[in-house]
Amino acid sequence: MVPPTKTEPSRKRQPTVIYKIKVTLSGSKPLIWRSLQASAESTLFKMHRIILEAMGWIDSHLHQFAIGNNTYRIRDSYADFGVDGSWKNERTAMFYQIVSGKGFRSRYDYDFGDN
Fold first, then answer.
1. pLDDT at res. 91
2. Which of 93, 37, 41 shows the shortest CA–CA distance to 66?
3. 1, 33, 106, 110: most buried by Cβ count inside 10 Å?
4. pTM, two decimal places
């Protein structure tokens, strides 16, 4: 007779937290907005890509996220900003580390010339 083998207890995967995000273009008349969804584990760079797709924009301009007292950007060797290290890397900043809860607000700037 073969003794029963021990099995590892099954590890349940934690449910993915999804944020519902409203993106509004400041000053647009009529109001232009999109309702988006993103995982809590998305980076701000991923959110940038989601916004581009939702708005029908191509990635041809510089952008940044202004959240609280912090600015998040990508490193661009051709840009003349951020050389002093006063900004944080959007490629490593994840939503769950930044978003404080329902009603959270931030600013996303795309195309610094036109905003």
1. 92
2. 93
3. 110
4. 0.76
What pLDDT digit, counting tens, does each position of 38-47 carry? 999 999 999 9
> Rounded to whole angstroms, how far apart are CA atoms 8 and 17?
26
What one-letter code names the amino acid at 61?
H
């008349």: which residue's tokens?
29
DSSP per position, 54-108: HHT--S-S-EEEEETTEEEE---TT-SS-TTS-SEETTT-BHHHH--STT---EE
Coil/strand/helix, residue 22: strand
